Amino acid sequence: MTQKDITFVADFLTEHFNEAPELYNRKGKYFNVERVGQYLKDEDDDLVSPPNTEGNQWFNFLKDSTHLKESPLLFPYYPEKSLHFVKRQMEGIIDQCLQKPADVIGRSVHQAVGMSLYKISQSEDSTPQLFKLPFLWNDKTSNLHYVLFTMLENSISKIHILRRHTDTSRSVSNGILAVEFGHFLNNSINESSDSRCYSCLDAHFYDDETVTVVLKESVQQEGKERVLAQLPLS
User: Fold this and answer.
1) What is the C-alpha to C-alpha distance for residues 220 and 201, in angstroms, rounded to an integer?
2) Contacts of 14 (CB under 8 A, 6+ apart)
3) For tag attachment on the chain, is the N or C end more exposed, with fewer CB atoms within 10 Å?
């Protein structure tokens, strides 16, 4: 330890653990509580050693500001309370702020369509993750909403595109379809059909007419080829 460390510890002990003979006859501890720990107690009692806010620039600023002093946007300060007390107060206010939007949004949302993507055995202990990379895109020009996703396990070479009209009362043709990459990237017809098979690593819309995908070769070997492809929706 350096001399600075020793001095720091000595100052801490001197400040917080001074002997107080006049308190010896009282039950319990007769030295000051550590000032940090009092803020972490989950209780509503006032702090034993509240902080000294004299000279605090923020408090002085609020005191001198006519508009901010009574502003409802500023969270009230409780200098005599612990952080747990302040946390509960803040959580209550946040819950109150979010309740109204939650009620309004909840009443306005309803299911437009439902479709089964896959089924799993009820006896399985843990549900496997079969649904991957959902990416959303809204075509404001055509009022269409798209969802890109892939299904793992037996269809890793496919990317699925779900298309819905933003007006739920209207439907569009080919509401959902799958694009299989498979072997279409083979350089020549002489290549073996099993030599070049690709699966989708990621997919995003590039613009309203184009989808960008990152593909990887499915063979089990080092140096797998990666392909960045742009596919027109048409």
Assistant:
1) 15
2) none
3) C
β-partners of residue 132 are 150
Confidence of residue 153 (pLDDT cuts 50, 70, 90): low
- What letter represents residue 69's amino acid? K
Q: Residues with Cβ < 8 Å from 182, sequence gap 6 or more?
A: 157, 197, 198
pTM for this one?
A: 0.50
CB 231 within 8 A of CB 209: no
Give the number of other CB atoms < 10 A from CB of residue 161. Answer: 20
Cα distance between residue 108 and residue 2, in whole Å: 65
- In the sheet that 144-151 helps form, which strands lie side by side, from edge to edge? 131-139, 144-151, 158-165, 176-180
Task: Report the alpha-carbon distance of residue 196 to residue 184 in Å, rounded.
Answer: 9
Q: How confident is the model at residue 22 (pLDDT cuts 50, 70, 90)?
A: low
Interatomic CA distance for residues 139 and 161, integer angstroms: 14
Kindly write down the DSSP assignment for every residue of 35-92, as one continuous string.
TTGGGG--S-SPPSS----TT-HHHHHHHH-HHHHT-TTSPPP-TTS-HHHHHHHHHH
Alpha helix stretches (DSSP H) within the chain: 3-16, 57-64, 66-69, 83-108
Cα–Cα distance for residue pair 42/87, rounded to 1 Å:
10
Distance CA 161, CA 107 (A): 28
Model confidence over 101-115: pLDDT tens digits? Answer: 989 988 988 887 787
